[in-house]
UniProtKB/TrEMBL annotation, chains A, B:
InterPro entries tied to this protein: 2-IPM_HCS-like, Aldolase_TIM, PYR_CT
Keyword NAD in annotation: no
Gene3D superfamilies per the UniProt record, alphabetical: Aldolase class I
A matching Pfam family: HMGL-like
Residue ranges annotated for the Pyruvate carboxyltransferase domain, each copy included: 8-261
Organism in which the protein naturally occurs: Paenibacillus septentrionalis
Protein name: Aldolase catalytic domain-containing protein
Protein's UniProt keywords contain Manganese: yes
Superkingdom: Bacteria
Annotated keywords: Manganese
Length: 319, 319
């Protein structure tokens, strides 16, 4: 087992993925404290939100500003940018390319395009546009655990012909075991010999950190995480664990502990994420956590056996 | 990476290791519900407590009956024993061998002897006694992350000459990374070619399940876990994850979900274990969680940065 991880960079997704938990209701002070903590900790990228367009999304009014990043606003939030670069995620069909300034006029360094396997072609069109405007780019293929090999190989062919810098292995349902992650990294490396790789893990089976470490040890470069694991449903790989365990003397856990103490513990008292049994159940069943999120919002939130029975009764199962 | 796990057996430690959290204050009804759940789930062993002697231990009066198991009492608790065998742990210097009935007269099937590396000789004397009385036996060498290789090789020589059935790799401080676990399993297998192995992991770095799966994939047979991870400090590998992910059709997660819903969720509201930052800190520093447990019992329980500074300031560090 290879264990060198000096090639890795951390992409903290606390605001972007964590916003899926609290509808991006983070104060400016919270985001500023996070940016300063990550910068002091040596974290390479902070994904500060989505760069989707409110015109293209229902229910946009209620969300916080991190869902629809605006460059003028960002300049006020982070008046003194440090070493930590900024990243934004866009979704196919929800981004207006006219909103994207040239990188030289923007606070953002990296734009990541999330898509399902059937939209890889559309994602790569967006990647080309962002690349031409000067950004670093990634394509994040979601729900890989539900993708057939032939579809994946077709996508690889398109990706090989594209300008995208990084290709992500995304464990959307938190269902990948280490043997699965190992298989996927091998597969991506075999088919994408000239592309650099990233990994985005979810913690439904308490494997997000282990799978991320495993991918890192095999040569994957961009590692997604969030502080105290904040992210949709079971959450993500924990930033505080990555900065501690990656072999890189520039990382420092202390500012991340400060962020957890000051902001994440009080926040976790108000909204929930992490290893919670309904999310573990959707993880073992390899499906989207939306049914579990609905359960957790109901007054049956701790009725695990009924929930399990519903999802595993043939006529009720989603697939 | 090997992934076959059909050779594995699960040893649920909820009562024994979880008792370290609540001073073994489990009701008889709780323990009966757990036994029935584990039996229905196909779990192989339930470690129902310690078989230490109250005469040899300070502060024994306040602890629940699971700290000093009594065979007459056990017969009442579990009048209808199923397929799930019973296990008890003993500590060097705290067990009176006169308390141990022949196995034919006891409810207990497996006796495990926990020791530090310097007491392996004493542990093996006890193992011989229990073996002669008909029990299955294990030796659990604690705090392996702090043991020098030469001491370990000396211990292996003693173990090779002994009658012990299983030798445990114990990650007492929850500090082992997958590469460390892989190294230790290789080392144990190389030096103990005729012994069977077990693994006991702690979850300080969210690696207990991953490390247990990794050990299982390399041929380790006995896998310790507890329901909902209940165990000292950061807790253990989760039984519900093992019964789901091990390749064995006899396992069934549903009764474990029922136990979590009925008993573990209400209990977790009263006492705490799991991924809690001070335990993560002792994990990354590879030391005993006692300082973190003291912090969590104080009114500074969420002052993570001060705690980290204390443990990492040279004159304050424990080693």
């Amino acid at each position: 087992m290879q264990s060198k991880t000096t090639h890795c960079k951390i992409v903290d997704c606390t605001i972007r993925d964590g916003g899926l938990v609290n509808n991006w209701d983070f104060s400016v002070e919270f985001v500023q404290h996070l940016y300063n903590s990550l910068n002091e900790a040596g974290v390479d990228y902070m994904e500060i939100g989505y760069k989707n367009s409110p015109k293209l999304l229902k229910g946009a009014d209620s969300a916080g500003p991190w869902r629809f990043l605006d460059d003028d606003f960002l300049r006020k939030v982070i008046p003194n940018k440090g070493q930590t670069k900024l990243s934004a995620l866009v979704d196919i069909g929800r981004v207006d390319e006219n909103d994207i300034l040239p990188r030289s006029e923007s606070m953002i360094d990296l734009i990541r395009v999330a898509c399902y396997i059937q939209d890889v072609d559309k994602a790569l069109e967006l990647v080309q546009i962002f690349h031409d405007r000067g950004y670093e780019t990634t394509i994040n293929i979601m729900a890989l655990s539900n993708v057939l090999e032939n579809q994946l190989v077709e996508a690889f062919n398109l990706i090989n012909e594209s300008v995208v810098d990084f290709v992500y292995i995304v464990d959307s349902y938190g269902s990948l075991k280490p043997t699965d992650m190992s298989y996927l990294v091998d597969k991506f490396q075999e088919h994408l010999p000239n592309k650099r790789l990233g990994v985005h893990a979810h913690n439904n089976l308490q494997l997000a950190f282990a799978n991320t470490l495993l991918a890192a040890g095999k040569g994957v470069e961009l590692l997604d995480s969030s502080v105290y694991g904040m992210g949709r449903a079971a959450g993500n790989c924990n930033t505080e664990l990555l900065v501690t365990e990656l072999q890189n003397t520039k990382y420092n856990v202390r500012p991340v502990l400060d962020m957890i103490e000051k902001h994440m513990i009080p926040l976790r008292d108000k909204v929930e994420w992490g290893y919670i049994i309904p999310y573990m159940i959707t993880g073992i069943l390899d499906e989207h956590p939306r049914s579990a999120m609905a359960l957790r919002s109901s007054d049956q939130k701790d009725q695990f056996v009924d929930f399990y029975d519903q999802l595993t009764t043939p006529e009720m199962a989603s697939k």
